[in-house]
Amino acid sequence: MAALTSASLCLLFGNRIINKLQRLQMKQAIRHDGPQTHLKKQGTPTMGGIALIASLFCSCLLWANLSHANVWLLMGTCASFSLIGLYDDWGKIRNNNAYAGLSARSKLLLMLAVGCIILGNHASGISGLPSHTRLTIPFVPANLLQLHLPTAVYWVFALLLLVGTSNA
């Protein structure tokens, strides 16, 4: 039901949000040193992720068990990475320049810092999460395959996963 709610909210309000972004002149600035195929994206509305994140949050607030620490960790992670993206996009829009947002290095360092805070919260048990570094493989029964990673390896893997998936 949570996925259905989130998808429905995106379908219901996504076009309205995109139209509003277009009216506000929130348009994509294109880097001229990139591939020629990207030039057709010039003028495409940017910051459409607002619709996705808003629908995710509404769905979580409606359907998730808000007493569970993982829910708040997920929402905090999404909010943090979204704010970094919003700040990056806003810099590009404000200056009408694809180079005016965060530099790739700054964005990566901010995302790594957020990832370390999230993992530090996880490791310290502040969130109520276990402090183990066990990696469970999705769709495989836990008693069949679990990897127990050294802490340093777990942190590197988790940081790559957080930063990589948010940039994919």
Please describe the topology of this protein.
Blueprint: H1 2-23, H2 49-63, H3 69-95, H4 104-124, E1 134-136, E2 146-148, H5 151-167
Antiparallel strand pairs: 1-2
Describe this protein with a few key phrases.
mainly alpha; two-stranded antiparallel sheet; 5 helices; 61% helix; globular
Q: How does this structure look, described?
A:
This protein has about 170 residues and is mostly helical. The protein has five helices and two strands, in the order H-H-H-H-E-E-H. It has a two-stranded antiparallel ribbon. The longest helix has 27 residues, at about 70-95.
Mean pLDDT: 82
Uncertain segments:
none
Indicate the overall shape: globular
Radius of gyration: 19 Å
What is the succession of H and E elements?
Answer: HHHHEEH
User: How would you characterize the largest beta sheet?
Assistant: 2 strands, antiparallel
Strand content: under 5%
Structural class: mainly alpha
Helicity, as a percent range: 55-70%
**Given the structure, what is the number of helices?**
5
The tally of strands reads 2
Distance between the termini: 26 Å
* Strand neighbour order, sheet with most strands: 1-2
